[in-house]
Amino acid sequence: MLILAIDLGTTGNRAIVFDHETRIVASSYREFRQLFPRPGWVEHDPAEIWESTRAVITEAVSRVDAKQIATVGVTNQRETVVCWDPKTGRPLHNAIVWQDRRTADRCAELKREGLAEDIRHRTGLVCDPYFSATKMEWLLHNVPAARQGILGTIDSWIIWKLTGGRVHATDVSNASRTMLFNLHQRAWDASLLKLFGVPRDMLPETRPSCGSFGALDPDLFGFSAEIGGVVGDQQGAMFAQGCHGPGIIKNTYGTGLFLMVNTGERPRESRHLLSTIAWEIGGRTEYALEGSVFVGGAAIQWLRDQLQIVATSSETEALAASLSSNDGVYFVPALTGLGAPYWDAAARGTIIGLTRATSRAHLARATLEAIAYQTRDMVDTMCAELGAPLRKLQVDGGACANNFLMQFQADLLGVPVERPVVIETTALGAAGLAGLHAGAWSGPSDFLAHRRIERVFEPAIPAASRDALYAKWKEAVARARGWAA
Q: Most buried of 304, 333, 361, 476, CB within 10 angstroms?
């Protein structure tokens, strides 16, 4: 039995075929364009995302016996919004990406009107342009054709395309990221739909994370299999990392940074972190507490694509390691504002401590260190709210392959950092949920029996040194905050 996982990321799409032992037997990856029509605006072309998805599926499946693929799992970049014509399948506007800040003024208005606390209570989310509701509202107000379309996050767009337009659905983990979904009722919230002017019939049906989402249209790839699992990317990583009970904390180093802990069968309110649905399996819903940072690995991509000081992301490891210290250079990558625990849409990217001796190695090191500092921001906040210290950090995502970053993360936190063999855990989590539905594993513990650890990074600097480094980071963050206010 083989399982196809489709990972719809922020900078590219990936298709991975896993076997029963969760080994990767085939994979394909393709980046797509990042569109920046105005400062603070981030868009994707939905048609390009679909073509990329078709291409990676075709390539990955060509390397295996497609008849052995029993089921398909889908995971995705969550809050990004697509609007399309259900008759023609044509996108009616570019996708508005989760990083987009165009609705920051609208969120500030909602806060001034005293609505933020009610939104938080209903959805578990802070009132921030990160989430889908104000993006959908913007589309409906600014794109005349949008009123004749249907709306969804990237998962629902691709499910609709994969099933030949037969299924318009999302799972509860993705729905819980829209700021339109009531955590307590586990349904679209009528008062929030009214507040943002989003008609219920434009939204997808919500379904359990482990269950049927229709079958692939056989005309697309020459074979068909049921889509048996759909989950938000960070919840998928959490599932694959074994966070199936309270207390186990994972951090995903992707485009952004996402720290999550399972909080059981009840949502837990927080003032600085997000309460969200982890997944629904067999009628049982589990919740999570999450810290979300907007720019993690994307900062490395910025060095590569915008500044062009490295040709490949992997170059940053050797550059950073070539220095014995950061020489006082700090980079706060608030390129789309700051997420948890600050939630400052007006913050902007700041590089501080430059001298004539500063080199590209310093910028590379400052970028990697910033990823670790932002993770500590979230860890300290989460541990304070949980009332328990961090014992170890389980990591995944593309940037965790960087050994300098992982060692610095362990040094900065003062705890072991555990890296699994399969770091593409978002895809593995989707495969796990789909495989459970298809009967590949008897339950989550059976699935987790195949998890393997590749390396553990142990802290290697004194507590005084880590605290001094972190104190300077906090000073740098203070300089970056409120810049665009």
A: 333
Q: Strand 350-352 vs strand 249-253: parallel, antiparallel, or unpaired? A: unpaired
Q: Has residue 3 got a pLDDT over 80?
A: yes
Structure-token pair, residue 72: 């398909």
pLDDT at 245 over 80: no
How confident is the model at residue 368, as a pLDDT?
97
Task: State the Cα–Cα distance between residues 374 and 332, nearest whole angstrom.
Answer: 9
Least confident of 49-58, 321-330, 445-454: 445-454
- Assess whether pLDDT exceeds 80 at residue 304: yes
Q: What is the CA 383 to chain-centroid distance, rounded?
A: 21
Contact call for residues 160 and 167 (beta carbons, < 8 A): yes
| 104's tokens | 């920051």
Taking alpha carbons only, the member of 79, 13, 12, 76 closest to residue 336 is 79
Which helix (H) or strand (E) covers residue 277, if one does?
strand 274-281
> Would you say 351 and 310 are in contact if contact means Cβ atoms under 8 Å apart?
no
pLDDT at 485 over 80: no
Q: How far is CA 116 from CA 62, 119, 385, in A?
A: 49, 5, 20
Q: How confident is the model at residue 424 (pLDDT cuts 50, 70, 90)?
A: confident
DSSP 295-331: -SHHHHHHIIIII-S-SSTTHHHHHHHTSSS-TT-EE
What pLDDT shows up at residue 75? 96
402 has a pLDDT exceeding 90: yes
The set of residues, in sequence order, having a beta carbon less than 8 Å from that of 33 and lying 6+ positions away, is 44, 45, 48
Predicted TM-score (pTM) of this structure = 0.88
Q: What is the pLDDT of residue 345?
A: 86
Q: Name every residue whose Cβ is closer than 8 Å to that of residue 271 and which is 6 or more positions away in sequence.
A: none
- The closest alpha carbon to 240, from 429, 438, 88, belongs to 429
Q: 252, 364, 371, 256: which is closest to 304 by C-alpha?
A: 364
* Token duo for residue 485: 């206010």
Cis-peptide, bond into residue 341, ω within 30° of zero: yes
Same topology for domains 2-233 and 242-420+452-485, yes or no?
yes
Q: How confident is the model at residue 484 (pLDDT cuts 50, 70, 90)?
A: confident
Extract the tokens encoding 119: 């939104």
The distance of Cα 115 from the centroid of its chain, to the nearest Å, equals 26
- Between helix 104-112 and helix 132-142 the angle, nearest 10°, is 110
- Percent of the residues in the chain that have a pLDDT greater than 70, as a whole number: 100
Q: Where do the domains of the chain lie?
A: 2-233, 242-420+452-485
Please list the alpha-helical segments (H only) found in 387-481. 403-413, 425-438, 444-448, 463-480
- Name the CATH architecture for the domain at 2-233: 2-Layer Sandwich (3.30)
Reading the block at residue 43, the tokens are 């868009």
